[in-house]
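Quick one:
INPUT:
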């Protein structure tokens, strides 16, 4: 009997150890908004999927413990497993950027993801799009999760024979950007491009992108997605390469025409500048000649005025001129006296010109004569011949 009890006790201990409910914890990053949804319980709450229900299940922690219950699946006590009571859903709110281009080197995924459309005259072409979006707030995360249910699964490994690996549901903005957002951009681009012919499209790119921006921003804002940037990327690429060649030729011709017109305008401006410069020089010469004529006229009038004054009162006029000459002499005098002086005068008609007298310096101020000046003069007078006599040397 004792042996049977000991065996039963050992079996219970083994069963208890195998069926131990090991706790499960899950953590997430700061850019995630978590939702912990009950898998069982109120039938009405489990079946109604609404934004209000998701908002009630949103939690404000960074780590959570998942609770389990034991579910028996056979006659024996060990026939069963632990089932989770809650499902953790994470919404990643990190910004996402996508470049949908035709080139493998420039696109996000390294393949042709350009937006292909047609013009009103059925010319096919493509354009690249660069777009950035994010989920700003927890309220936007609720809207996003309501419209785009979680599809990805990330498993938390559990080393327990009675528990399966725990599955965390995740929803990412990347998948929505590459699917629904891109499809919406494609739709609006196609509608706007079909309104213009090929020749008009090159000048209507801003209008097309404005229409795409207005539609896409408003449409996805109601779904919790905020488009922060959207722009055309890489220009237009035509389906037929010959169209691009023809456009390049037309553009080159337009450039040549513009260069020729610019050169013609420059030549015209240079001609106008030379003309204006010539007119300016002519005007300048005219002004100079006019000034010279005015000066000559002024001088002539001054001379005539002085002559009139001379004829009216000659003595007063000459006295005034004498004072002017003496004033000028004093202005240029360097303080030294001249050696010679002239005293003279003559009559002109009934007028007698005044004598011009310069002050004679004192004898002490004159330079001394050479030492043998008198002797040399005496010898020269002694040897001089009388008038009419010729020397003997000259007669020979």
């Amino acid at each position: 009997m004792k042996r049977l009890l000991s065996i039963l006790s050992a079996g219970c201990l083994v069963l208890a150890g195998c069926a131990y409910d090991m706790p499960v914890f899950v953590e997430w990053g700061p850019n995630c908004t978590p939702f912990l949804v009950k898998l069982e319980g109120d039938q009405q709450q489990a079946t109604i999927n609404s934004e209000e229900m998701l908002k009630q299940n949103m939690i404000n922690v960074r780590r959570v413990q998942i609770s389990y219950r034991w579910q028996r699946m056979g006659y024996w006590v060990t026939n069963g497993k632990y089932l989770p009571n809650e499902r953790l859903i994470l919404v990643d709110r990190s910004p996402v950027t996508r470049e949908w281009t035709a080139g493998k080197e420039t696109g996000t995924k390294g393949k042709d993801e350009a937006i292909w459309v047609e013009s009103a005259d059925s010319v096919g072409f493509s354009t690249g799009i660069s777009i950035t979006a994010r989920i700003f707030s927890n309220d936007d995360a609720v809207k996003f999760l309501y419209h785009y249910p979680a599809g990805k699964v990330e498993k938390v490994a559990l080393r327990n024979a009675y528990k399966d690996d725990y599955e965390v549901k995740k929803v990412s903005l990347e998948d929505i950007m590459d699917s629904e957002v891109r499809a919406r951009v494609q739709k609006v681009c196609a509608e706007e491009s079909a309104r213009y012919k090929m020749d008009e499209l090159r000048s209507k790119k801003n209008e097309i992108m404005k229409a795409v921006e207005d539609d896409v921003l408003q449409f996805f804002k109601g779904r919790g997605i905020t488009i922060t940037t959207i722009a055309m990327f890489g220009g237009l690429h035509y389906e037929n390469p010959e169209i691009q060649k023809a456009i390049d030729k037309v553009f080159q011709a337009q450039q040549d025409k513009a260069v020729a017109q610019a050169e013609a305008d420059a030549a015209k401006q240079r001609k106008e500048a030379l003309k204006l410069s010539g007119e300016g020089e002519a005007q300048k010469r005219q002004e100079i000649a006019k000034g010279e004529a005015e000066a000559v006229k002024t001088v002539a009038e001054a001379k005539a005025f002085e002559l009139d004054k001379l004829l009216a009162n000659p003595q007063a006029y000459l006295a005034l001129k004498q004072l002017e000459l003496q004033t000028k002499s004093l202005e240029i005098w360097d303080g030294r006296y001249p050696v010679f002086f002239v005293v003279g005068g003559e009559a002109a008609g009934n007028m007698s010109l005044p004598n011009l007298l310069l002050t004679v310096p004192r004898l002490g101020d004159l330079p001394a004569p050479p030492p043998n000046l008198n002797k040399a003069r005496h010898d020269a007078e002694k040897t001089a011949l009388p008038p009419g006599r010729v020397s003997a040397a000259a007669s020979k």
